[in-house]
Amino acid sequence: MSASNIFDILGGKDTAQSLPEGSGVFSNRGFVGAFTAATVHSFYSGEDITLYESPYVEGEDFVRRGEIGKFWYYFFDRDAAEKAMEIVSADYRPNRVWRFEMPVADILNPRGNMDNWGYSVSTEVKVYNMGYAPKRHEFHLMALPALIDALARLTGSTKERIWHADELLDEIADEDFTESLQFRLIGDPEATNDDLEAFAELLEAAGGDLDVAHSFALGTAETIPDTIKAMAGNVKIHYKVSTFWKRRAALWAALGEPNAEKYIPISYALTDRGKEQETSSAILSEFLRFTVEKWNTPLFGRLHLCKDPRNDAVNSKNNKRLTLALISELFASRDAAIEAVKDDGDEETTTTTTTPTAASTSNGGLPAMPEEWGDSKDEWLTTLGTFKEQYGENVPPTPILKNLVGQLFCTEDDIKAWWQYA
To answer: In b/e form, how buried is each residue of 141-159, taking b as 16+ CB within 10 angstroms?
Structure first.
């Protein structure tokens, strides 16, 4: 795929999902490979919906992740998700999430034992309206501008990075995730419009330097002008003057959108309230389509599991810091992605056993044949191809793979290794 026809992967407006409307030290290089992203509706249940009578087909209407007694369900259609919840007696309404999945079989720079990841490296962020509250930074301040910046650079709409999260990708120790860091990067959730107005005075006193103005607001600056001494340490940092928001605003402006709050593609709003959030920029609108439409094929990119900048974003069960999805870079082709991995020096880091990437020299450069199929390569490929026509270019999720194993008399590894050749 070239950058000029990148929009061809999108499924069109009839596939679009509405957006909610309203107001320690090493470099995290991420995983490079083919990935998809989709706005879906998720819920958790211990019940297996396939054991009930329902109109929903796994792999078509929904996918699920987990194991017996612990399932996360992902539906593209919200109404279907709510009806499915009733069938399995789930406890709460579905969450709208933007989910990223990079199948392990498609990762070009695997590290360690990739068996631990299962079918895919996956992560998701909750999608909220434009109002700010704890966790709403996931989409609007991080995941969304990250992908828009990557799309803009891939298509040549911008020449350099404008939005980035280097403060988080250049890994820092857990103890350094302080309130001060949180407020600088994504703002203080308790900040009000009064704080926003007061910060304008701090920014003026700082000569327009955002970092200095932040230090005034936090009361950490070594030198504070007399004109604002009474304000220093007493102004909460509003998300609209946070580092990540300011970078988003600069990116939006570079793409011809003066209002950084706009996040709905042109003509995609479903309500009058939503129309207020439609962008006026044609190119930004094209990029925003990637957040609401189904993707027909994956993109090659760099997916980071980025640490959540909130100081208290810690899993209470294992005390590990929570992570969020970030796409920092996109590539026009698999070859371009491979070159990027070579530049990273990661091309020989794989120790995975479930998704062989090296062709078998004993089988004409192809993977080893499944044991039950002997030398019947043509028949094997034809049979596998019928399932590929049904499930698409990507290796199917684990539940479907398990069903295919019984029908094809092979292993999951056989299917993963041969899928691209079918």
So the answer is: bbbbbbbbbbbbbbbebbe
Strand partners, 411: none
Q: Where are the domains of the chain?
A: 3-176+292-344, 192-236, 361-421
Q: Which residues contact 271 (CB under 8 A, 6 or more apart)?
A: 21
Lowest mean pLDDT among 69-78, 357-366, 380-389: 357-366
Q: What are the strands, taking DSSP E only, across 177-333?
A: 299-307, 323-331
d(CA 245, CA 295): 27
| Alpha-carbon gap, residue 287 to 151, rounded angstroms | 7
Give the separation between CA 245 and CA 313, rounded to whole angstroms.
Answer: 19
> Tens digit of pLDDT for each residue in 281-306?
999 999 999 999 989 899 999 999 98
Site of tokens 């930074």: 137
Query: Tokens at residue 380, please?
Result: 């094997």
* CA angle 343–8–150, rounded 5-degree value: 35
The two structure tokens encoding residue 1: 């795929």
Scan for tokens 């911008």, then name that residue: 158
